[in-house]
Each structure stands twice: as structure tokens, then as C-alpha cells.
Amino acid sequence: TTEAPAATTEAPVANTTTTPKSATISGGKYTLSGSTASYTKPVSANRTSVSIPATIKVNGKKYKVTSIASNAFKNSKKLKSVVIGNNVTSIGANAFYKCQKLTKVTVGTRVKTINKQAFAKCGKLKTISIKSTVLKTVKSKVFSGIYKKAVIKVPSKKLSAYKKLLKGKGQAKTVKIKK
């Protein structure tokens, strides 16, 4: 079992009357827009595990974390595991590109799009759990260069559809997609 990401993570209240455009909370940097937030990058490159929350709170206002920006964790040398919150709908291009120690990823329930090379060249990535039942778009080379005997776990009711959707996304033919 994987731990669920924290439902809400709160930032310290700052003395400001204007709406901020960005925030740094619990080791992550976010870009804010309207009532949503995008995880842009970790504060420290030394984190071994990251849990991207479903929501964050800045100056008392709640923001849904709906995306992980392109290149957010690119070349993170120590990152080993990631849990993606349940409000995230999009994972940016190269978001986890070349995270060479990454072994485990849990994708939240609302992810609709995984952009190109999001997990490419993560040679130790052995376990990918996709909890989303609304995944519609998986771009090219998303899994290029992951561990050749990796297992991609998908919801049982989506097994057939996701086998087709995930076919030919760069992973070796020995990578298993199962429920």
C-alpha cells in the first residue's frame, strides 16, 4: 500500500493583501492561478521522497494542485519515490526525466494527461501505480528507458483500455501492465 498524499498543506500567513502568484510550501514551489496551483519544482534537490498534495493553502485561501510543471523534477539525483495528489490532472513533459534513483511512482485518481518523456530515462523505475480511471492522453516516450522488468499497475476496470493507451510509449516489451 502507498501512503496517500496530505489532503491540504498550509503555508505560513504573510502580511499581504494582494494575491500571490507563487508560493513555497512543504518543500515545493508552486505557481498560483485563480483557485489552482501547479507544482513547479522542489525546494531542495536532496529529497528522496515527494508527496504532491491535493490542495495547498496560501494566506488562508485554498488552491487545488492540478498539475506538475514540465521539468519539475528533471535530473533529480536522489528522488526515489513520488505520490501524486488526487487533484493533479496533468503531468508535464520531462517532469521526472532522468531521475536515476526513482523506483516507485503513484499517480493520483484524476490524472488525464501524461506528457512526453515524463518518466523517461528513469532506469530504476520498477513500480508505477496508476490510480486514475480518467487517463486519456499519454504522449510519446513517456516510459522510455525505465527498468526493463517494470510493472505498471492500473485499475482493473481499465486494464484493457490502458494496455492499448500505454502500448508503445517507450517502455521495453518486457514491462508488464496489470491490474
Distance between the termini: 14 Å
Would you report the number of β strands?
15
Series of H and E elements = EEEEEEEEEEEEEEHE
Strand content: 25-35%
Structure overview:
This protein is mainly beta. Helices cover 4% and strands 34% of the residues. It contains 1 helix and 15 strands. Strands 1, 2, 3, 4, 6, 7, 9, 11 and 13 form a 9-stranded mixed β-sheet that branches. A 6-stranded parallel β-sheet has the order 5-8-10-12-14-15, with helices on one face. Strand 14, helix 1 (159-166) and strand 15 form a beta-alpha-beta unit.
SSE map:
Layout lengths: L7 E3 L11 E4 L2 E6 L2 E7 L6 E4 L2 E4 L2 E8 L12 E4 L5 E2 L12 E4 L5 E2 L12 E4 L6 E2 L12 E3 L5 H8 L9 E3 L1
Parallel strand pairs: 1-6, 4-7, 5-8, 7-9, 8-10, 9-11, 10-12, 11-13, 12-14, 14-15
Antiparallel strand pairs: 2-3, 3-4, 6-7
Key structural traits:
single chain, 179 residues, mainly beta, 9-stranded mixed beta sheet, 6-stranded parallel beta sheet, globular
Give a short overview:
With 179 residues, the chain is mainly beta.
